[in-house]
Specification:
By secondary structure, the protein is an all-alpha fold. The protein has one domain. The longest helix has 18 residues. The protein is elongated and about 30 Å long. The model has no long low-confidence stretch (mean pLDDT 73). This is TetR/AcrR family transcriptional regulator. InterPro entries: Homeodomain-like_sf (IPR009057).
């Protein structure tokens, strides 16, 4: 996946992804799928 976003947008996406992973209880096991 090519990151063409500015830093703020990328951080927002990463935060939302982290929140989603945490809510599903597998943060750390699927991080490479980001």
């Amino acid at each position: 996946m090519v990151h063409r976003y500015n830093k703020d947008t990328q951080q927002k996406i990463l935060k939302e992804a982290a929140d989603l992973f945490m809510s599903k209880g597998y943060l750390g096991t699927s991080t490479r799928e980001i």
